[in-house]
Design a protein that fits this description.
Number of strands: 0
Structural class: mainly alpha
Radius of gyration: 20 Å
Distance between the termini: 57 Å
Length: about 130
């Protein structure tokens, strides 16, 4: 099954053409992508639970520590998942050793993720809350 195609040799026909190609690629690799998502979230939740259990004697703070531990575990796993999605979309086969991100990639992803979270939070505070008051 060849999923890679070249749009430079032929003009993109339509959105439906592109969507059909992307959907067929997704359907072909659905079990692999679903398993990767499940493992990513399971590992990060278990890491958060472990941190919560370690800091059980500090009530209130253990939730914060567990959230930080989960985020620190989730970030490199998310980088691996993005690389896996890129390999799937390009029709490549990937090994686990190929998916391990470099530390610089994780830091760049963490910075971008933090900017998105701050932007969405500020947008909610500055736009939604005054709209509810007025």
């Amino acid at each position: 099954m060849e999923t890679q195609f070249d749009l430079s040799s032929q003009p993109a026909r339509s959105f439906k053409f592109l969507f059909d190609r992307a959907w067929s690629t997704y359907c072909d690799h659905f079990p692999k992508l679903f398993l990767a998502l499940f493992i990513r979230d399971l590992i990060s939740v278990l890491a958060g639970c472990l941190v919560f259990a370690i800091f059980i004697d500090s009530p209130g703070w253990n939730f914060l520590y567990a959230f930080i531990g989960r985020c620190l575990t989730w970030l490199p796993l998310q980088c691996m998942f993005i690389k896996l999605c890129l390999d799937v979309s390009q029709g490549k086969t990937s090994k686990i050793s190929d998916l391990v991100p470099a530390p610089g990639q994780c830091l760049a992803f963490a910075a971008a993720w933090l900017l998105v979270v701050v932007g969405v939070s500020l947008g909610l505070i500055l736009l939604v809350i005054p709209g509810l008051v007025l």
